[in-house]
Amino acid sequence: MELRHHRREMLTISVKDGKMDAVNHGVTEGACARVLIDGSWGFASTTNLEKDAVMEIIEDAASLAKASKPMKKRIAELTQPQAFEDTYETPMRRDPWKSDKEELVKLVIDVDKEVRSFSPKIVSDNVSLRIIDDKLNFTSSEGSRISQRIIRCYGVVTVVARENGKLASAYESIGAQSGLEILEETPLENAGRTAAERADKLASARVAPGGEFPVIIENRIVGLLAHEAIGHCAEADLVYGGSFLADKIGKKVASEKVTLIDDGTFPHGFGTVKYDDEGVPTEKTVIIEKGICRSFLHSRETAKHFNVKPTGNARAWTFEYDPIIRMRNTYIASGDYSLEELAEAIKDGFFLKGGLGGQADFTGEFMFGTQEAIRIRNGEFAESYRGVTISGNAFEVLENVDAVGKDFIMRIGMCGKEQVNYVGMGGPSLRTKLLLGGA
Amino acid sequence: MAELRKEEMLSLCEKAVRTAERSGASEVEAYICQILRTSVGIERGQIVKTITHVDQGLGVRATYNKAIGFAYTNLLTEKTVEEAASKAFSSAKASQPDPYWRSFTTRKCFANVQKTFDKKILELSSEELVGLATRMLQTATEKDKRVFVVDGEVEASYAAKALFNSYDVSNYDKGTFISCGLAAVAREANYVTPVCFEFDAKRTLDIDPEWVGSETARLTASALKAEPIPSKTYTVVFTQLAMQLLLSYTLVNAVKADYVQREQSALKGKIGEKVASENVSIYDDGILEGGFRTWGFDDEGVDRRKTVVIEKGVLKNFLYDNYTAGKDEVESTGNAYRGGNAPYVETPSIEATNFQFTPGNKSTDELISEIDSGLIVYFLQGAHSSNPVSGEFSVVAVPSWKIEKGEIKNAVKGAMLSGTVFDVLRNVSALANNQRQVGALVAPWISVENVKVIGK
Hints:
The complex is a heterodimer. By secondary structure, chain A is of the alpha+beta class. Chain A has helices at 51-67, 101-116, 182-185, 188-202, 219-230, 236-240, 300-306, 339-344, 394-399, and strands at 2-16, 19-37, 40-46, 85-89, 122-140, 145-163, 166-177, 211-217, 260-263, 284-289, 292-293, 314-315, 324-325, 329-332, 348-360, 365-377, 380-386, 389-393, 403-404, 409-417, 419-427, 430-437. The mean pLDDT of chain A is 92. Chain B folds into 2 domains: 6-222, PmbA/TldD superfamily (PmbA/TldD fold, 2-Layer Sandwich), CATH 3.30.2290.10; 232-454, no CATH class. Chain B is built from 11 helices and 24 strands. The longest helix of chain B has 18 residues, at 6-23. The radius of gyration of chain B is 24 Å and the shape is globular. The interface between A and B is large, with 80 and 82 residues. Strand 3 (40-46) of chain A pairs parallel with strand 2 (46-64) of chain B.
C-alpha cells in the first residue's frame, strides 16, 4: 500500500498583445492511496485531508482492487521493496515566492513590449511566465518516508506575424527545474527576440517542398525525436504491448553514432526527481548505447516482469493519478561535429528548426511539426521556408544518422501519455534522412 | 464521496464573492465544480486497475479598476475559499488595467437542456463498470486472434457546476457522461499495424461495449497488409475522428472571436463571404440534446444556445464569450469554457460546444461507391502541429485505407495529407448520413476532393 500527499502551488502571469491576460495564483492539494491486493490495483484520491477521509480512500482503493480481480489473467507483482527515508529539494538561488508579484508582472510586460516593437509585421503575441512548486510526500507499507519539493520556472512566447495577408507563427520557451535564477541565465527576452525574428522572417516565406531529403535536425528539436519516437518505445508498459523495441535488447536498433539516455538525475532537468512516485530512486538509464538497445524504462511492476531493477520511471501528474511509466530527461548524447561540418555533406536538403509538438506510436512511426526549414545547397545554408511536418519510422531515421553535432542543449517539455507530466528533452543537432510533408 | 448539493455550491461561491467585494474588489465572480469519476483501465489485453477520482474546487475572478486577478483552491472550507478570494483580489491589484474590460455577465438566463443527466450512470458500481470492460475486451479478443488490445478504458463520470457573481447571476447544473474505448494492434508475420481505436460515449447509460470491441478488432485486422501509395491528389473520406482532429486545431479556432480579434484567424473580415462548399452548414449547438458539451449555461454564467457558423458555405458568425463580445459590441454566444481535468483552475476561454455539420442523405456505402480512386482516413497523427493561423496542415493519415472503384481496399502505409483546412472545406463534395459525435464535432463521414497525398 502506498499513500501520497501532494500540494501544488502555481503562479501564472500572462500578457497578450500588450494587455494583461492573467495573473493566476492557486493551490491544489490532496492525497491518494494505491493498493495492490492479490495482483490487482485499486486507486482512490481525495481533497479532504482529515484523518477519517484518508482512511476512507485506503478502504476505497482496497475494494476497487478487489472489484477488478475476477478478470485478471496476469497478476501484478512488485520488485523487492527497498525502504528509503529521505528528503530532497530543488537546488535554487532565488526563491520565486520571495519575489514581488508586481515585479514579475513588469518583466512579462516588458518582454511583450519588446516582441511587439520588433517589427511592424507582428500582429499578435503572448508572453507568459509560470512558477510551479510541488511538495510531494510518499509513504508506503514497506517502510518508505520520502519528502520532495520540486520547483520549476518556465516562460513561453508565441508570436504571429503577417505580410500581404499571409500569417506565420513562431514559438519559443525557456525554463528549468530551478528558482528564478533561470531568468538571469536564459532571459525570457531572448526567447521573445528569437520568436519575433522567426515569425517576422517566415511571414513572407513559402512552404518547403515535400519528399525525402537529407536533413540536419536542430539541437532544439532532437530531444523531441528522442522523446516521442524512441523513448516511448522503451517504456516497459508499451514494450509489453509489443513496441518496436520489444525483442531488441542487445540488438542494433540505430546507427552506432547514436546513444540515447533517459536520465532522472540530470541537473536542473525539467523531469528530474530524486525518487519517483513509487519511492524508487531515479537513475541515468541508457536506452541505446552506440546503436545497441540496452535497457527499457521501468516501474516496480514491469521491472519484476522483466526480471531487472526498477529504473525510477513511475510518475504521476498529481495526487489524482496513479503512477505510470514516464520519461524524465531524454536525450541523445553529443558527437563532435560543428553545424557547418554537418551541412558540408548535404547537396540538396534542409536544416529543420523549432519544434511544434509531436506524436508517435510504439511501432516507432512518428510525426512532428517544425517551425522553419532552411534549404541547404552544396553544403551552404540558403533561403528559409515555413516549417513542415516531418514523419517516418524513428528507427529508420536513427539508422540513417551519419553525423552527430556537439551543440548539446537540454530543453523543457510536456508529455501527454494518459496524464501530462513535465519532462526534459535534449540533444545536439544531427544529420539524417527524412520524409518532409511539404507543399 | 457524496455529491455536493446545489445550495452548498452556491453558498461557497457567494462567500467568495462577498469576501473579495469587502476587500475592495470592483466586481467578483466565483465558479465551483465537482467531478466524480470512476474508471476501469485495460492494458495489454487485460483489466489492470480501477480508479476513482474526486475533483472539486472553486475559482474566483476579481476585478479592481478594470484589472483582473484570478485564484483557486481545491480545498472547500470557508477559510480556504476566503483565502482564494483574497488572493484573487491581490492578483488584480498586482495586475494592469484592461481598457476593453466591460463586466462579468449580467444576464440572468438558463437554457433548458435534455438528456444530459442520467442517475443510472451515477449509481453504477465499480463491479458493473468492470463488467462493461470485460464484455468489450472479450468481444475484441474473440473476434480475431491476430488482434492484441494495447489499451482501453471504461469511464463513468458526474459533474456539477455552479456560478455566482456580483450581479446576482446564480446558476447551477449537473450532468453525467459514460464512455468506453479500446486501442489495438494486429500482428501477422513480422508486420505490426499502427494503433487503431474505436469508442462509444453518451450522456445517458446507453453505450454498446460489444460494438466497440468488435469494431476495434475489425478495423485493426483490416489494417494488416498495408501498402504505400503513390503521391498525387485523391478524393479523401474523413471519418469523424479524423475530421475532428483536422478541425479542432484549425477551423474551430478560426471562428473563435479572440482569434479573430487578435489577428490569428484567416476568417477575419469574412462574415457573409463564401468560405466553404455549398454542402457545408455548421452550427455550434450548445443545447444539443444529449450533446457531450451541452450545459444550461457556459463557464461564466451565460445561457448556452445554438449559433449558425457556416450556412451553405457562407460564414455567418463567430463564437464569443462575454469579454470578446464586449469588444465587438455584440452579445456573448455562450461559448466561455473552462477546460482540463480541473476546470476550476482555469479562467474561461472560448471553445466550441457541439460543433455540428448538417448531415447529407447518402449512406456510407453510397458515399464510398461514388469514389473511383481515393482514401478513407480514420485518424490523423500530428494534427496539433497544424498552423492555427493559416489553416495549413500536414498530417500522417494513419490508419487509412485505399478506395478503388467504389470499394474500400487494403490499408495504406505512411501517407501524409497536406493542404489548408479552407481548401478542404471548399472541396467538400458529399456528406453521408451517419451523424456521430467525437469531441466537439458532430458530423457524418465527409468526402473531400483534390486532397494532396504524399506517399512513397
